[in-house]
Amino acid sequence: MTSRILVMPGDGVGPEICREAVRVLDVLAHDHGLDIELDEALVGGAAVDSAGDPLPEDSLAAAREADAILFGAIGGPKWDSQPRDKRPESGLLRLRSELGLFANLRPAILYSQLAHASSLKKEIVAGLDIMIVRELTGGIYFGKPAGQGTTDAGRREAWNTMRYDEDEIVRIGRRAFEIARARGGRLCSVDKANVLDVSQLWRDVMNELATAYPDVELSHMYVDNAAMQLVRAPKQFDTIVTTNLFGDILSDTAAMLTGSIGMLPSASLDAAGCGMYEPVHGSAPDIAGQGVANPLATILSVAMMLRYTLERGDLADKVETAVGAVLDRGLRTRDIMDDETQVASTQEMGGAIVDMLR
Ligand code: NAI
Ligand code: MG
């Protein structure tokens, strides 16, 4: 069956990096039997400029029709003074919530060739390969009640609510167990069960789910300890599952262990396995249009798309292997350069991956 892929390039370096990722999809379709149909839609500042809305109706409709979305990046100084609902970011947030993308997958992989880029010692991070599964549509960012007011004593107050129901925990938990099963077979659930009632429910549900996954080893860790362990000995982790708030912070921490923002992909999945795939980085307005952006985060997002939506893990492996091989050859975009390597443009880097896949 033909899978429909919607490309949403967005702003800044978005179009440049998406162009290279599309070349990768094209070669997989042409040479490796990947059955896809590509379409493109406006999002972000580009959509504000042409349609007055960061997520126009026809873009949202196309996104709903698609099996997978390849998303570049949105935003930039040009739109910073717009009212909130006209800002590029609100297009991305609406897309996530309209599509019910509750599972955010954030791998932190450090290619051994780039171990120099990390701020940690090489022996602590070389070969790092962890996956953080963050709940994305619930928890304290969406819990009610939330608001601001005044106390009886006339002092200002504000509140948010961290709330999860059982079904929300089960669906993210199942996804995480399945991902852990396909990786190293170890899942660490991160919570604050010593203090929070909502964490106690989270922990109970994870323990109940574990009986259905006897081949996955489940452990629990308090979030404060997890933050310490991530920078002390990150390689102890395989797959981590956690709430929206804790996952927001821990996934950025883990990502930075790699030191290379231009190398980090992500996926956000719905219940049916459809999903949106995007680099972790933003629109990089400081380098946009210069042809120097690293396209590998976006190309590695294509690998995640192949694995998690298109069910072509074989091709995902091929793309990831090609990235390693190109790094082995010493090819580097400017952001991951060191003294012994050869500088490549966005297009040269994409071309090198395409050549490897031929
Ligand atoms: P950024 O990630 O765009 O850039 C941070 C730094 O990393 C910059 O120096 C940039 O040149 C560099 N960088 C980023 N991606 C790179 C790549 N592929 N290759 C080489 N270098 C790269 O974050 P920043 O500067 O905070 O935000 C810029 C704009 O992007 C803002 O408007 C922000 O709102 C938006 N943004 C959008 C996101 C998204 O679309 N999901 C996520 C984060 C920020
Ligand atoms: Mg964040």
Describe the structure.
The chain has 12 helices and 14 strands. By secondary structure, the protein is α/β, with parallel strands linked by helices. It has 2 domains: 1-111 and 261-358, Isopropylmalate Dehydrogenase, CATH 3.40.718; 129-257, Isopropylmalate Dehydrogenase. The strands form 3 sheets. A 10-stranded mixed beta sheet has the order 2-1-3-12-11-4-5-10-8-9, sandwiched between helices. Strand 8, helix 7 and strand 9 form a beta-alpha-beta unit. Helix 1 (14-32) crosses helix 10, helix 6 (166-182) packs across helix 7 (197-210) and helix 11 (313-328) crosses helix 12 (346-357). The longest helix has 19 residues, at 14-32. The protein is globular. The mean pLDDT is 96. The structure holds 1,4-dihydronicotinamide adenine dinucleotide and magnesium ion (MG). Residues 248, 252 line the site of magnesium ion. The site of magnesium ion has 2 residues, from helix 9. One of its GO terms (cellular component) is cytosol. It is found in: Cytoplasm. It catalyses: (2R,3S)-3-isopropylmalate + NAD(+) = 4-methyl-2-oxopentanoate + CO2 + NADH.
Throw out a few tags for this protein.
alpha/beta, ten-stranded mixed β-sheet, Isopropylmalate Dehydrogenase, globular, 358 residues, binds 1,4-dihydronicotinamide adenine dinucleotide, oxidoreductase, leucine biosynthesis, binds magnesium ion, 14 strands, 2 domains, two-stranded antiparallel sheet, metal-binding
Architecture (CATH level 2) name of the largest domain: 3-Layer(aba) Sandwich
CATH fold description of the largest domain: Isopropylmalate Dehydrogenase
Inertia-based shape: globular
Structural class: alpha/beta
Bound molecules: 1,4-dihydronicotinamide adenine dinucleotide, magnesium ion
Listing every helix as H and every strand as E from the N terminus to the C terminus, the arrangement reads EHEHHEHEHEEEHEHEHEHEEHHEEH
- Which range does the strand content fall in? 15-25%
End-to-end Cα distance: 23 Å
Q: Overall mean pLDDT score?
A: 96
Subcellular location: Cytoplasm
Keywords: Amino-acid biosynthesis, Branched-chain amino acid biosynthesis, Cytoplasm, Leucine biosynthesis, Magnesium, Manganese, Metal-binding, NAD, Oxidoreductase
Subunit structure: Homodimer.
Enzyme class: oxidoreductase
